[in-house]
Amino acid sequence: MDERGMQKRLRKITLFFTLVSLVLLMGSGGISILLNHTFQNEIEDQIVTETNRHRTNINRKIDTDLQTLYTLSSFMEFSGTIDSSQFAKGLYESNNENSFLQMGYFEKGGTGIRVTVNGAMEENMKAEETDSTFYESIQKAWDGKSVVSDVYHDSAADEDFIAYAVPVQKNGTVVGALTACESTSVFFDVLSIKSGFSEQTKVRVMGTDGKFFLPAQSGDQADSVSDILLSEKERTAFQNMLEQGKSKFMEVNENGQTCRMFAEPVGVHDWYLVLTATERGISEPLY
Questions:
Q1: How many distinct helices (H) and strands (E) make up the chain?
Q2: Domain covering 65-183, topology
Q3: Which Gene3D superfamilies match (predicted)?
Protein backbone atom coordinates (compact mmCIF):
# COMPACT_ATOMS: atom_id res chain seq x y z
CA MET A 1 0.00 0.00 0.00
CA ASP A 2 1.42 3.42 -1.00
CA GLU A 3 1.87 6.25 1.47
CA ARG A 4 -1.21 8.17 0.25
CA GLY A 5 -3.39 5.13 0.80
CA MET A 6 -2.02 4.59 4.30
CA GLN A 7 -2.69 8.20 5.24
CA LYS A 8 -6.27 7.91 3.98
CA ARG A 9 -6.78 4.75 5.99
CA LEU A 10 -5.29 6.32 9.10
CA ARG A 11 -7.65 9.29 8.73
CA LYS A 12 -10.62 6.91 8.57
CA ILE A 13 -9.42 5.02 11.64
CA THR A 14 -8.82 8.27 13.49
CA LEU A 15 -12.29 9.54 12.53
CA PHE A 16 -13.84 6.23 13.62
CA PHE A 17 -12.22 6.31 17.06
CA THR A 18 -13.05 10.00 17.43
CA LEU A 19 -16.71 9.26 16.75
CA VAL A 20 -16.64 6.31 19.14
CA SER A 21 -15.03 8.48 21.82
CA LEU A 22 -17.69 11.16 21.32
CA VAL A 23 -20.49 8.60 21.61
CA LEU A 24 -18.95 7.17 24.78
CA LEU A 25 -18.42 10.65 26.20
CA MET A 26 -22.02 11.63 25.48
CA GLY A 27 -23.22 8.37 26.93
CA SER A 28 -21.19 8.77 30.09
CA GLY A 29 -22.44 12.36 30.42
CA GLY A 30 -26.02 11.17 30.15
CA ILE A 31 -25.39 8.44 32.68
CA SER A 32 -23.76 10.97 35.00
CA ILE A 33 -26.78 13.29 34.73
CA LEU A 34 -29.14 10.38 35.36
CA LEU A 35 -27.17 9.21 38.39
CA ASN A 36 -27.04 12.74 39.83
CA HIS A 37 -30.79 13.15 39.30
CA THR A 38 -31.43 9.83 41.04
CA PHE A 39 -29.14 10.82 43.91
CA GLN A 40 -30.89 14.17 44.37
CA ASN A 41 -34.29 12.43 44.37
CA GLU A 42 -33.03 10.02 47.02
CA ILE A 43 -31.81 12.92 49.15
CA GLU A 44 -35.15 14.72 48.88
CA ASP A 45 -37.03 11.53 49.73
CA GLN A 46 -34.91 11.14 52.86
CA ILE A 47 -35.47 14.76 53.89
CA VAL A 48 -39.24 14.38 53.51
CA THR A 49 -39.20 11.10 55.46
CA GLU A 50 -37.18 12.65 58.28
CA THR A 51 -39.41 15.74 58.45
CA ASN A 52 -42.56 13.59 58.50
CA ARG A 53 -41.09 11.57 61.37
CA HIS A 54 -40.56 14.72 63.44
CA ARG A 55 -44.05 15.99 62.59
CA THR A 56 -45.57 12.68 63.68
CA ASN A 57 -43.67 12.79 66.98
CA ILE A 58 -44.82 16.36 67.71
CA ASN A 59 -48.46 15.51 67.01
CA ARG A 60 -48.20 12.32 69.06
CA LYS A 61 -46.90 14.37 72.00
CA ILE A 62 -49.79 16.85 71.69
CA ASP A 63 -52.37 14.07 71.37
CA THR A 64 -50.97 12.35 74.47
CA ASP A 65 -51.18 15.59 76.48
CA LEU A 66 -54.78 16.16 75.41
CA GLN A 67 -55.68 12.57 76.27
CA THR A 68 -54.22 13.07 79.73
CA LEU A 69 -56.50 16.07 80.25
CA TYR A 70 -59.52 14.18 78.93
CA THR A 71 -58.85 11.36 81.38
CA LEU A 72 -58.68 13.85 84.25
CA SER A 73 -61.80 15.67 83.08
CA SER A 74 -63.69 12.38 82.96
CA PHE A 75 -62.68 11.75 86.58
CA MET A 76 -63.88 15.23 87.53
CA GLU A 77 -67.22 14.64 85.79
CA PHE A 78 -67.60 11.37 87.69
CA SER A 79 -66.68 12.83 91.09
CA GLY A 80 -68.90 15.85 90.58
CA THR A 81 -66.89 18.18 92.83
CA ILE A 82 -63.57 20.04 92.69
CA ASP A 83 -61.55 20.00 95.89
CA SER A 84 -58.64 22.45 95.62
CA SER A 85 -56.30 20.52 97.91
CA GLN A 86 -57.01 17.25 96.11
CA PHE A 87 -56.60 19.01 92.79
CA ALA A 88 -53.15 20.29 93.78
CA LYS A 89 -52.15 16.86 95.01
CA GLY A 90 -53.32 15.36 91.72
CA LEU A 91 -51.09 17.73 89.75
CA TYR A 92 -47.98 16.90 91.74
CA GLU A 93 -48.64 13.18 91.39
CA SER A 94 -49.49 13.31 87.70
CA ASN A 95 -46.44 15.44 86.93
CA ASN A 96 -44.36 12.27 87.14
CA GLU A 97 -46.29 11.09 84.08
CA ASN A 98 -46.41 14.30 82.03
CA SER A 99 -44.57 17.56 81.42
CA PHE A 100 -47.27 20.01 82.56
CA LEU A 101 -45.96 22.93 84.59
CA GLN A 102 -49.39 24.27 85.49
CA MET A 103 -52.89 22.88 85.67
CA GLY A 104 -56.13 24.66 86.41
CA TYR A 105 -59.88 24.45 86.46
CA PHE A 106 -62.13 27.38 85.55
CA GLU A 107 -65.87 27.26 86.10
CA LYS A 108 -67.86 28.46 83.13
CA GLY A 109 -68.38 32.18 83.57
CA GLY A 110 -66.83 32.04 87.03
CA THR A 111 -63.50 31.85 88.78
CA GLY A 112 -60.88 29.14 88.82
CA ILE A 113 -57.94 27.58 90.60
CA ARG A 114 -54.48 26.95 89.23
CA VAL A 115 -51.54 25.07 90.67
CA THR A 116 -47.92 25.27 89.57
CA VAL A 117 -45.30 22.59 89.99
CA ASN A 118 -43.02 23.57 92.87
CA GLY A 119 -45.07 26.73 93.26
CA ALA A 120 -48.08 28.22 94.98
CA MET A 121 -51.71 27.40 94.39
CA GLU A 122 -53.82 30.29 93.09
CA GLU A 123 -57.50 30.40 93.96
CA ASN A 124 -60.44 32.57 92.89
CA MET A 125 -58.63 33.42 89.65
CA LYS A 126 -60.54 35.35 87.03
CA ALA A 127 -60.11 33.70 83.65
CA GLU A 128 -60.20 37.03 81.82
CA GLU A 129 -57.19 38.21 83.80
CA THR A 130 -54.94 35.43 82.51
CA ASP A 131 -52.83 35.72 79.34
CA SER A 132 -55.04 36.56 76.34
CA THR A 133 -54.00 33.41 74.43
CA PHE A 134 -54.63 31.28 77.52
CA TYR A 135 -58.01 32.96 78.10
CA GLU A 136 -59.02 32.32 74.49
CA SER A 137 -58.33 28.59 75.07
CA ILE A 138 -60.54 28.61 78.17
CA GLN A 139 -63.39 30.26 76.25
CA LYS A 140 -63.21 27.65 73.49
CA ALA A 141 -63.29 24.85 76.07
CA TRP A 142 -66.37 26.51 77.63
CA ASP A 143 -67.88 26.19 74.14
CA GLY A 144 -67.22 22.45 74.22
CA LYS A 145 -64.00 22.34 72.18
CA SER A 146 -60.64 20.79 72.97
CA VAL A 147 -57.87 23.31 72.38
CA VAL A 148 -54.14 23.51 71.75
CA SER A 149 -53.16 27.16 71.98
CA ASP A 150 -50.66 28.99 69.88
CA VAL A 151 -47.33 29.84 71.51
CA TYR A 152 -47.44 32.66 74.04
CA HIS A 153 -44.84 34.22 76.31
CA ASP A 154 -45.29 33.91 80.05
CA SER A 155 -43.75 37.08 81.49
CA ALA A 156 -43.57 35.70 85.04
CA ALA A 157 -41.60 32.63 83.97
CA ASP A 158 -39.92 34.50 81.10
CA GLU A 159 -40.57 31.46 78.93
CA ASP A 160 -42.66 30.45 75.91
CA PHE A 161 -45.63 28.20 76.64
CA ILE A 162 -48.46 26.40 74.91
CA ALA A 163 -51.74 25.74 76.70
CA TYR A 164 -54.26 22.91 76.51
CA ALA A 165 -57.91 23.16 77.49
CA VAL A 166 -60.74 20.62 77.45
CA PRO A 167 -64.36 20.96 78.54
CA VAL A 168 -65.63 19.47 81.77
CA GLN A 169 -69.25 18.37 81.62
CA LYS A 170 -71.96 17.54 84.11
CA ASN A 171 -75.13 15.80 82.94
CA GLY A 172 -74.19 16.59 79.35
CA THR A 173 -73.67 20.31 79.97
CA VAL A 174 -70.29 22.07 79.94
CA VAL A 175 -69.67 23.47 83.42
CA GLY A 176 -66.00 24.38 83.19
CA ALA A 177 -62.62 24.04 81.52
CA LEU A 178 -59.67 21.94 82.62
CA THR A 179 -56.41 23.54 81.55
CA ALA A 180 -52.72 22.75 81.47
CA CYS A 181 -49.67 24.44 80.07
CA GLU A 182 -46.11 23.44 79.39
CA SER A 183 -42.95 25.05 78.14
CA THR A 184 -42.25 24.75 74.41
CA SER A 185 -38.82 23.44 75.43
CA VAL A 186 -40.39 20.01 76.08
CA PHE A 187 -40.50 19.56 72.31
CA PHE A 188 -36.70 19.61 72.23
CA ASP A 189 -36.85 16.09 73.60
CA VAL A 190 -39.25 15.13 70.81
CA LEU A 191 -37.01 16.59 68.10
CA SER A 192 -33.84 15.14 69.59
CA ILE A 193 -34.98 11.54 69.08
CA LYS A 194 -32.18 9.89 67.12
CA SER A 195 -32.12 11.05 63.54
CA GLY A 196 -31.13 9.20 60.40
CA PHE A 197 -29.04 12.21 59.42
CA SER A 198 -25.73 13.49 60.75
CA GLU A 199 -25.32 16.31 63.27
CA GLN A 200 -24.99 18.76 60.37
CA THR A 201 -28.78 18.64 60.06
CA LYS A 202 -30.89 21.21 61.93
CA VAL A 203 -34.58 20.85 62.78
CA ARG A 204 -36.61 23.86 63.90
CA VAL A 205 -40.27 24.69 64.44
CA MET A 206 -41.56 28.01 63.19
CA GLY A 207 -44.57 29.75 64.72
CA THR A 208 -47.29 31.81 63.09
CA ASP A 209 -45.14 34.95 63.37
CA GLY A 210 -42.38 33.44 61.21
CA LYS A 211 -39.98 33.09 64.15
CA PHE A 212 -38.49 29.84 65.43
CA PHE A 213 -40.06 29.08 68.80
CA LEU A 214 -38.06 25.86 68.70
CA PRO A 215 -34.60 26.74 67.36
CA ALA A 216 -31.94 24.16 66.66
CA GLN A 217 -30.36 23.14 69.95
CA SER A 218 -26.69 23.61 69.15
CA GLY A 219 -25.51 27.20 68.68
CA ASP A 220 -28.45 28.39 66.61
CA GLN A 221 -28.02 32.01 65.55
CA ALA A 222 -31.14 32.17 63.37
CA ASP A 223 -34.26 33.65 64.96
CA SER A 224 -36.46 33.25 61.90
CA VAL A 225 -36.53 31.84 58.38
CA SER A 226 -35.68 35.29 57.03
CA ASP A 227 -32.25 34.95 58.65
CA ILE A 228 -31.30 31.99 56.45
CA LEU A 229 -33.09 32.67 53.15
CA LEU A 230 -30.67 33.76 50.46
CA SER A 231 -32.62 36.51 48.71
CA GLU A 232 -35.71 38.68 48.77
CA LYS A 233 -37.10 36.57 45.92
CA GLU A 234 -36.86 33.46 48.11
CA ARG A 235 -38.48 35.28 51.04
CA THR A 236 -41.40 36.12 48.77
CA ALA A 237 -41.60 32.51 47.55
CA PHE A 238 -41.55 31.28 51.14
CA GLN A 239 -44.32 33.69 52.13
CA ASN A 240 -46.44 32.45 49.22
CA MET A 241 -45.88 28.89 50.44
CA LEU A 242 -47.09 29.85 53.93
CA GLU A 243 -50.23 31.50 52.56
CA GLN A 244 -51.04 28.35 50.58
CA GLY A 245 -50.19 25.99 53.46
CA LYS A 246 -47.89 23.90 51.28
CA SER A 247 -44.51 22.18 51.65
CA LYS A 248 -41.44 23.44 49.84
CA PHE A 249 -37.76 22.76 49.13
CA MET A 250 -35.41 25.75 49.01
CA GLU A 251 -31.73 26.61 49.20
CA VAL A 252 -30.68 28.61 52.26
CA ASN A 253 -27.53 29.92 53.91
CA GLU A 254 -26.48 28.38 57.21
CA ASN A 255 -23.37 29.98 58.71
CA GLY A 256 -21.90 30.67 55.28
CA GLN A 257 -22.82 27.26 53.85
CA THR A 258 -25.46 26.70 51.17
CA CYS A 259 -27.90 24.09 52.47
CA ARG A 260 -31.07 22.35 51.42
CA MET A 261 -34.16 23.36 53.37
CA PHE A 262 -37.52 21.62 53.53
CA ALA A 263 -40.51 23.26 55.23
CA GLU A 264 -43.72 21.39 55.98
CA PRO A 265 -46.88 22.26 57.98
CA VAL A 266 -47.06 20.61 61.40
CA GLY A 267 -50.84 20.49 61.33
CA VAL A 268 -51.21 22.69 64.43
CA HIS A 269 -52.12 26.35 63.87
CA ASP A 270 -49.73 27.67 61.20
CA TRP A 271 -46.64 26.00 62.66
CA TYR A 272 -44.03 24.73 60.22
CA LEU A 273 -41.28 22.17 60.64
CA VAL A 274 -38.11 23.47 58.99
CA LEU A 275 -35.27 21.03 58.31
CA THR A 276 -31.96 22.25 56.90
CA ALA A 277 -28.86 20.22 56.09
CA THR A 278 -25.62 20.48 54.19
CA GLU A 279 -25.21 18.04 51.31
CA ARG A 280 -22.64 16.17 53.39
CA GLY A 281 -24.99 16.02 56.34
CA ILE A 282 -27.69 14.51 54.13
CA SER A 283 -25.57 12.16 52.09
CA GLU A 284 -23.37 10.64 54.85
CA PRO A 285 -26.11 8.20 55.97
CA LEU A 286 -26.45 6.96 52.37
CA TYR A 287 -23.00 5.39 52.44
A1: 6, 12
A2: Beta-Lactamase (3.30.450)
A3: PAS domain (3.30.450.20)
